[in-house]
Amino acid sequence: KQEVTQIPAALSVPEGENLVLNCSFTDSAIYNLQWFRQDPGKGLTSLLLIQSSQREQTSGRLNASLDKSSGRSTLYIAASQPGDSATYLCAVQHPPDGSARQLTFGSGTQLTVLP
Amino acid sequence: DVKVTQSSRYLVKRTGEKVFLECVQDMDHENMFWYRQDPGLGLRLIYFSYDVKMKEKGDIPEGYSVSREKKERFSLILESASTNQTSMYLCASRQHWGQPQHFGDGTRLSIL
């Protein structure tokens, strides 16, 4: 059974720092990996989706990388801002073989960017 | 932009009541999902639907049912609400398998 882990559970950084959030998964046979942001009391906002054949995806100050063979993904946030404060979750999608057809989520990293 | 709308942000019900949570998406997505999110347990899939009138159980379907009569609408039903169903409920949709999931703002449900 796929397990997705995000360490650390919480992270606090001063404004302007570049930072990396980590996501690891136990079964490397994934189809894609998606990063989400969740603000307190709200739903999830999709940030980036990386296909298993890709190494990275970029959107603005965000860059997500994927190393499928080692079971890892990272989300890099450049020049962090207080508005980046949120919980960041990763989720893996398996191939459509019927064994695990939906997303498996990590428990998230709660990021606080201090002014 | 994809818009997934959940009918209520906050809801308070009593034990034993039948509770309906509604979700509507405006992008003609084929797949729709209901999750619940609890501290320490993360997101857990309750039910999903690949298409109209089709539904499949997720990881924790007990005590819930769903209805998808129209493509844009996916309803979650608590047949007889219990206090252990107090939670944040999140609806999501996607165009088809392998595409990004898009979430609504969630419904925080309290069962008293």
Structure description:
The complex is a heterodimer of chains A (115) and B (112). Chain A is mostly beta strands and 115 residues long. Helix content of chain A is 0%, strand content 54%. In chain A, the strands form two sheets. In chain A, strands 2, 4, 5, 9, 10 and 11 form a six-stranded mixed beta sheet that branches. Chain A has a five-stranded antiparallel beta sheet with strand order 1-3-8-7-6, with no helix packed on it. Chain A is globular and about 45 Å long. In chain A, 32% of the residues are buried. Chain B has 112 residues and is mainly beta. Chain B is 0% helix and 54% strand. Chain B is built from no helices and eleven strands. Chain B has strands at 4-6, 10-13, 19-25, 31-38, 42-49, 56-57, 64-70, 73-78, 87-94, 102-103, 107-111. In chain B, the strands form two sheets. In chain B, strands 2, 4, 5, 6, 9, 10 and 11 form a seven-stranded mixed beta sheet that branches. In chain B, strands 1-3-8-7 form a four-stranded antiparallel beta sheet, with no helix packed on it. The termini of chain B are far apart. The interface between A and B is medium-sized, with 22 and 22 residues.
Which features characterize this protein?
heterodimer, A: 115 residues, mainly beta, six-stranded mixed sheet, five-stranded antiparallel sheet, 0% helix, globular, B: 112 residues, seven-stranded mixed sheet, four-stranded antiparallel sheet
Gyration radius of chain A (Cα, Å) is 14 Å
Q: Give the overall average pLDDT of chain A.
A: 92
Low-confidence segments of chain B, given as residue ranges, are: none
What structural class do the secondary elements of chain A suggest? mainly beta
Instruction: Give the H and E element order of chain B.
Output: EEEEEEEEEEE
Largest interface: A-B, 22 and 22 residues
Number of strands of chain B: 11
